[in-house]
Amino acid sequence: MRLICAKNYQDMSRKAANLISAQVILCPESVLGLATGSTPIGIYRQLISWYEKGDVDFSKAVSINLDEYCGLSPRDTQSYSCFMHQNFFDHINIDPRRVYLPDGMQTNSTLECARYDRVIADNGGIDLQLLGIGRNAHIGFNEPDSCFACGTHQVTLTESTIAANTRFFENEAQVPRQAYSMGMQAIMQAKRVLLIASGADKAEAIRNSFFGPVTPQVPASILQLHRDVIVIADEAALADCPAEA
Ligand code: GLP
User: Fold this and answer.
1) Residue 156: what pLDDT?
2) What is the value of pTM for the model shown?
3) DSSP three-state, residue 27
4) Set 143, 153, 208, 234: catalytic member
5) Percent of the residues in the chain that have a pLDDT greater than 90, as a whole number
6) Catalytic choice (138, 142, 165, 234)
7) Strands 2-6, 229-234: pairing kind
8) Whole-number Å distance between alpha carbons of 132 and 87
9) CA gap 20, 18 in Å, rounded
10) Is residue 64 within 8 Å of 16, Cβ to Cβ?
11) C-alpha of residue 128 to centroid of ligand 1, in Å
12) Do 185 and 153 touch, CB atoms closer than 8 A?
């Protein structure tokens, strides 16, 4: 693991955007695994600005998102599909036919999970996987559990995740209770993983994930076994890490 300490949110966002843009410049057909949440927004803003200046071209890139809420259509403003379009896709030249998210409206979870795993396989896997991290160390929507989920799966969200994500909804009752999430296999097979974290409320998750035992109770801890993980976190998110880190 390479741990990069950023001064603050803006610094974290610029450093991470630099790595993503380098990936796309070096390999225009890159398959990007993209993430939602408030943490990546600064990265997307930076990438949009570099795209507008002509520095990076997404026309040949593929995007495969981590997750989607069950029961929300892509037009629902709370859906992750809508989030990605509003915060990124609508402002760059990515081909809409190369943009993938799980279909939250598919009620047959077996079919949907198999379809999404096929999407990942048909695109040859992920070149660069961007990950945020939940306060309970979830990645995508891989919640703490008794084992790591391998493929795309339907998840029942934990109370802590529902509480954390309520800020994006009018009230807690509106937060969907289930989601589709990419599993650990696709994340672990990504050629490179870039995990970002900002703020004191992520400090415990970062410490437990990268300086504690590998356990499905701390989903991001599996990344300790990945051969190319870059963690870019700001000082507040690194505050609980051992001094020698
Ligand atoms: C959601 C997403 C995750 C994300 C997490 C943290 O639960 N499914 O992919 O990492 O939120 O979000 P934030 O960056 O807003 O703290």
Assistant:
1) 95
2) 0.97
3) coil
4) 143
5) 97
6) 138
7) parallel
8) 15
9) 6
10) no
11) 18
12) no
Other CB atoms closer than 10 Å to residue 150's CB: what's the count?
12
Token couple for 146? 């008794």
Question: Residue 245: its pLDDT value, please?
Answer: 73
**Following CA atoms 132, 138, 140, 142 in sequence, which dihedral angle do they give, to the nearest 10 degrees?**
170
DSSP state of 166: G
The DSSP result for 215-234, as a single string, is -TTSGGGGGGG-SSEEEEEE
Question: For the CA atoms of 17, 140, 136, 188, what is the dihedral angle to 10 degrees?
Answer: -80
- pLDDT given at position 26: 98
Give percent above pLDDT 70 in the chain: 100
Q: 232 Cβ partners below 8 Å, 6+ apart?
A: 4, 6, 12, 15, 16, 19, 194, 195, 196, 197
Looking at residues 140-146, what average pLDDT do you find? Answer: 96
At residue 100 the predicted structure's pLDDT band, cuts being 50, 70 and 90, is: very high
Cα distances from 45 to residues 17, 68, 88, 92, in angstroms, run: 9, 21, 7, 10
Q: Is 138 in the active site?
A: yes
Q: Give residue 37 CA to ligand 1 midpoint distance, Å.
A: 4
Active site residue 67: yes
The CA 164 to ligand 1 mean position distance, Å, reads 9
Residue 130, pLDDT > 90, answer yes
The residue behind tokens 């190369």 is: 98
Pocket of ligand 1 (CB under 6 A): 35-39, 66-67, 132-134, 140-141, 161, 165
